[in-house]
Amino acid sequence: MKSLLSTLLLLFAIVSVGYARPIATSEIAAKSAQGLRLLSLAEGEDPVWKTEAEVLDLLRAGKNFFDVTDTYELETKLRAQTGSAAKVVSDVLRATYAAPSKQTQVRAILGTLTTTNMQSYLNTLTAFNNRYYRSTTGVSASNWILSTVQGFATQYGRSDVVAQQVTHSFQQPSVVVRIPGSNPSAPRVLLGSHMDSINLSNPTNGRAPGADDDGTGAVNLLEAYRALLQGNFRPTNPVEFHWYAGEEAGLLGSQAIAANYKSTGVQVKAHLNLDMTGYYKPGTAEVMALAPDYADSGLNEFMKLLITAYSRIPWANDLACGYACSDHASWNRQGFPTAYPFEAVTGNDNPTIHSASDTTSVNGFSWTHSLEFAKIAAAFAYELGI
Ligand SMILES: *[C@@H]1O[C@H](CO)[C@@H](O)[C@H](O)[C@H]1NC(C)=O
Ligand SMILES: [Zn+2]
Q1: Which pTM does this prediction carry?
Q2: What is the layout of strands, in order, in the sheet containing 37-40?
Q3: Model pLDDT, residue 330
Q4: Which residue owns the Cα nearest ligand 1 atom 10?
Q5: Class of domain 96-385
Q6: Which of 128, 145, 228, 317 is close enough to 233 for a disulfide, judged by CB 3.0 to 4.6 Å?
Q7: Where does the secretion signal sit in this chain (predicted)?
Q8: Helix (H, G, I), strand (E, B) or coil at 33
Q9: Which residues are catalytic?
Q10: CA–centroid distance, residue 272 to ligand 2 (Å)
Q11: Model confidence over 61-97: pLDDT tens digits?
Q12: Which residues face 190 on adjacent strands?
């Protein structure tokens, strides 16, 4: 009894310390002006200031984190407003969804997805020297994605589609395109991937084609969006496709957008994250590996039904992805249901990422594998949006 009480008191003390002394606006302004970044390195721990060199060392060491420099104040305000939760939730949630039921309509759309189109988009994306979030070519990649999604809206006569760039505190803007719902206030269906790439030895100027990380996820969403427009997709719920800036530097674009949606009361039905879909280790069986952590277990159950209904390859349970491992974590952090199907069970995934070698010529890269993720993206949008 005594030890239980002291354990509870200790827990209470840890939680209180964590949030009793929020970092002041003036400190954030002063330190970020010096080039320091505020990083959240682990669940339940206070964020810490790091120099740019230290940030790069963490990236090179493969350590994942949220860079919360730009969102810390908004999150602190949100916590104060909602009052209840001591921190922004990152628990596994449990949303519920109806089983897939639109097979005829969905299959018609899936039949129009092509690997040729995806290869063509990816040729453009990988031709940028890199898509780093603070390089001019990273900005050019964002501009190209925007003009491409606008071009599809024009091509298919969809003046109702809204495409825009979301600007951040750094150069590269994220891109958001919305297919309006007949019920504009219905919870939105979101599909995201990241546009940026990084060469870990020389982020600003080094070659980083980022073909798989995350060119594949980015072109899966371009092609799913295109096919839905071609199929005259008119959803009930608004359906949005996101291309996030600055994922490789601490989930910057997705955090900014997720925190903005939370603070402005945008309702989210479900979020799908595609980050690396084009590789599986030669000799291993093809699967779609579902991240079990920082994802919604109810949405993962829906994903299993969706994959079984629409993909030729089976789902698998992945190993834990860990804290802040990709953009789904930004949505989970704000309490929105999210899922993350990955190219392979961790360990059988692409070993060339974050380098000049992340190209489509790597042994194990497969367009027919990646196509399955474009199919699942289009099916996700249709089944949840209609
Ligand atoms: C980074 O880029 C340079 C120059 O473009 C290249 O020589 C180097 O191999 C790249 N680093 C990695 C880790 O691929
Ligand atoms: Zn990635």
Answers
A1: 0.93
A2: 48-50, 37-40, 66-67
A3: 98
A4: 356
A5: alpha beta
A6: 228
A7: 1-20
A8: helix
A9: 194, 213, 247-248, 275, 354
A10: 14
A11: 999 999 999 999 999 988 888 754 434 444 456 889 9
A12: 240, 271
